[in-house]
Amino acid sequence: MAVADGMADKILLNFSITKxxxxxxxxxxWYTLHxxxxxxxxxxxxxxxxxxQPLEKNGVHLVSLGTGYPVIDVLLSPWRVYRLSKTFHxxxxxxxxxxxxxxxxxxxxxxxxxxxxxxxVCNPVEILQTSGKTYSGLPNxxxxxxxxxxFRSASRxxxxxxxxxxxxWVRSTSFKKKLKVVPLLPEEFSAPEFxxxxxxxxxxxxxxxxxxxxxxxxxxxxxxxxxDLIDIVIILKELGKKFVLTVVGDGAxxxxxxxxxxxxGLGDSIxxxxxxxxxxxxxxxxxxxxxxxxxxxxxxxxxAMAGLAIVAYRxxxxxxxxSDGENCLLATAGDRRAMAHHIAxxxxxxxxxxxxxxxxxxxxxxxxxxxxxxxxxxDAFDDPEFASHER
Length: 391
Fold this sequence. Notes:
With 391 residues, the chain is an alpha/beta fold.
């Protein structure tokens, strides 16, 4: 085994049912570089898909194990993960796949004595409540059974503190004793490209005050409630406000959303920009005034880093992270009119949106620092009880 400075290398293997090509398409694949704040090497195994060429950058390896046959890929995934573990001499193991983590990891545990950490990055219960569909697409009873098995087989369930919905959900289960909450994890961080580009663009300031620039960044999927934004735009138009909303992102709902916007005569008020790489997302945020989002994710943290005024639904634990009236404005989930009036008030009062944005930036840059991330990763993984056995 490789040795550096007299200490064994720390090598983290992450495995997921997702496809490498899908992650590349989403554009934030290199947030994984932040794991190098603690690990000597970080390997991500994508278990389905068409098996594009592996990627490597600065000690981070992104490897596709898919063959294009999903059922076969799932069935063979334990062996493939085990073999990859041996190839890279992995010392730590983690999976964010709540549904099939138990299946992917059983051979690691049986043959290698590995202790696998399951890391929820969402709350499937909340997704079902807000979108009417399950997190995985499986029937609800089947999804719940698989999550139960994943939690039962895990040595630890790891959540970051600002994932309030996920933390509360795990605490409501019978596996709360396995839960470890840490301040930060790399999944909260944008790709280095975003942060570097933001430093370039933010000094140029936002676009002209009229029309006010609104922006949404995220996947165009039903669970993100993006359709509500079109209704909100209609209300803002009724109120006589001048603005342009740029929708950054792609997904299954895009065609339907564009058709609905066109049918409502909103062609001069909504621009669908599609998927953009991280650097371009930074540029759009830097030139905008107000970030709007029914269901928030990483993008709300990026908006805060960019110093935008944030208007969002009270979902996903955002009210545990941000302070309504201090660094954001929140509306009850589904209350489109309340959200529209929040936005209208910020359109009318420029100094108020600048105040909210400055407060959001101050909070974000104090909370999501690389120094804090290094310590958080150490707290999460530097524990002999949960490390794999010495090789």
